[in-house]
Amino acid sequence: MITLKKGVSLAGVRPEITIALHVAASILIDLGYDTVVTSVCDGKHGRASLHYIGCAVDIRTRHIPEDQRQKVRDMIAEALGAEFDVILESTHIHIEFQPK
Prior knowledge:
Layout: E1 2-4, H1 15-30, E2 35-39, E3 56-60, H2 66-80, E4 84-88, E5 92-97
Parallel strand pairs: 1-2
Antiparallel strand pairs: 2-3, 3-5, 4-5
């Protein structure tokens, strides 16, 4: 199941991010973790952030053991392929659609 943190906005989200979110959620669910979206087209990000044009999503990681987070990130990145950047940050996994 995918849960949205209160205040998360999906208005303007690109279909590629919707697909990426479902791919990430299926991996997290298979590993026994919840999928909590903390930001899509909302929040405060850098000026050039792809969040503002619906091309990025953040997924909470605090419920994933610290020693498993890189593995989860790697699995998501492998499943999504080269058109997506998947970055493990201190509080979340950031996924952005950025075709090369």
